[in-house]
Amino acid sequence: MPASASDLYSGLIRLHVLHHAAEGELFGFWMIQELRRHGYEISPGTLYPMLHGMERRGWLTSREQIKKGRSRRVYTITPTGRKALSDAKDKVRELFSELFTDVPRRTRTRRPSMGAQQGPRK
Ligand SMILES: [Zn+2]
User: Fold this and answer.
1) Coil, helix or strand for 31?
2) Fewer beta carbons below 10 Å: N end or C end of the chain?
3) pLDDT for the residue numbered 101
């Protein structure tokens, strides 16, 4: 992913992580595959620091899980993360309606029709 595009998408990726962390525990490799399914190519070198950063911000909490003799870090959402996710969802809904709605919402600022236009009187 070019640097400029990853700038644009990093917030979306964080929201995606929060969304899944709200549904249950997740681990890095699963999240990488999930993001790939959604069309984001993200390397472990990008995702893991992002997960650590989100934990530092208090949005995620993690624990060591031993599975089949191998240990891995699993993440889940915190109450602070839930609040951040819910606030962000309101913002995404708002942005979504602007990006994808063809119907103008501010009908009062609609251009007047030609006939109603007030031109300088002669
Ligand atoms: Zn997903």
Assistant:
1) helix
2) C
3) 79
Please name the residues in contact with 51: beta carbons below 8 A apart, sequence gap of 6 or more: 17, 28, 31, 60, 62, 73, 75
CATH of the domain at 44: 1.10.10.10
Question: Where do the DSSP E strands lie in 1-122?
Answer: 26-27, 60-67, 70-77
Domain count, the chain: 1
Question: Angle at which helices 3-23 and 44-56 pack, to 10 degrees?
Answer: 60
**Residue 110 belongs to some domain of the structure:** no
For residue 18, the CA-to-ligand 1 centroid distance in Å is: 10
Ligand 1 centroid to residue 98 C-alpha, Å: 23
CA atoms of 67 and 112, how far apart (whole Å): 67
Q: What's the domain range around 43?
A: 7-99
| Residues flanking ion ligand 1, Cβ below 5 Å | 34
